[in-house]
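Hi R.,

Here's the chain you asked about this morning:
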Amino acid sequence: MNVTKQTSIAQTNIKPDWHVVDVKGKVLGRVATEIADLLMGKGKTSFVRNYVVGDKVIVINASLVEVTRNKAENKKYYWHSGFPGGLSEETFATRMIRRPGQVIVDAVRRMLPVNRLTSSFINNLYVYPGEEHPHQGQAK
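And here is the predicted structure, written out as tokens:
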């Protein structure tokens, strides 16, 4: 009987790669799943659910991401201040004008598992509204 020995990878031996994702003209949900997979490291052979084995992702052209149908007018973002009557809402179109990077971050965050590693995954995401970014040396 052949028994294969499973070896665990140490967190210190994990070297993240850098990926640049251009979202110009791409659909928000589809690109968010690709980014979430890169952040979690699902495509790596060393993938383990309890470690951050994913890569660092740079998203450029966040202000040019698209949504299907009429979600630009119908999709709403809600938040509450914690005070009575403090519920606020904003449509996708106005959020893209005000904070285009936050739309990508919110979509990717909702694609990630809800656990202690979620904040570590989000810290490896860098979103920029235009093509310029300060990570020229790291990105391939």
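One quick note: Residues 28-40 form the longest helix (13 residues).

Cheers,
M.
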